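quick one if you have a minute, typing this from the bus. below you get a single protein, a line of residues and a line of whole numbers that encode the local backbone shape. could you go over both lines and see whether the tokens make sense for that sequence. anything you notice is useful, everything is just below.
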Amino acid sequence: MKFSNVLVQWYLQNKRDLPWRQTSNPYKIWLSEIILQQTRVDQGMVYYFKFIEHFPTVFHLAKASEEEVLKLWQGLGYYSRARNLHFSAKYIVNELKGHFPSSYIQILKLKGVGDYTASAIASICYNEATAVVDGNVYRVLARYFGIATPINSTKGIKEFKLLAQKLLNPTISGTHNQAVMEFGARMCKPQNPDCEICPLNESCVALQKQIVKTLPVKEKKLTIKKRYFNYLVVQTPNNKTIIEKREKGIWINLYQFPLLESAHEIDVNQLITSEKFDKLFGKLNTSVKLFNQTMVVHKLSHQHIYTKFWIINIPNSAKFSLNWDEIKRFPVPILIDNFLNEYKSN
């Protein structure tokens, strides 16, 4: 228990004052955990407060439209989290009569919830003895015990989970889990960890062997895919445009300007001779101008999107009837939102 006791003592003295640590309400803990997946705490906190304000209970979230939820989530990325959150809220209200699942096994059944999130909620809200393993935990355990097994391998995932479970203090599961995660986030950091003042430094294998910077080990990622997006931004004299709802892939159910995806970067001649351009504008007189001379590169974990925004000036047409002022009420990818803010200021 020494490992757990040291971390818990450190945690109680150094923990950050975060809003979701002031409650044991499983809905709020669940909301915070979903938001904090792939998101920094300082960025996630803003969204946490927005969601609590708009949807104070799971019943409010379940009643909302998906569009409302996506709009509130806008800018946070990984939108499947928001769709899964909304889906699970409706499941809790409609199938579980509004009662949040109260065990690891039950919580794991919620869409978008994996081992880590289920363990966190079950231990923090119900003190169930199930250990969390996230990026921070991997780092602390790999360094302290000198483990070189890749953390993203099947063997590594199993090995670290078993070790975390063995180290867990079952009488204070929630506090222990939060302690090791906080320790990884603030003391045993990815870069420049505070080894000199670390309360575990006398027994840390990585520090003794001077391999702190090499742990944890991660297998090489897959090759990043390059994609080329060409957005056709319609502008009419009477300030009308058009947007479309994305039906598949990344950003599904978010809105965007008509999109021509190409295999490589294209110029204006290739754009105006494309089937997409012809289908959208036909014989209308068009004036085409590239808005961004340098392609905008939007980096996701598995792909990089190289983007051009083409401003298409055309005569007034009933085909294009959306007022520019109305666009802001639609949920859009951050890539589109950034363009809108820049286009409006020009």
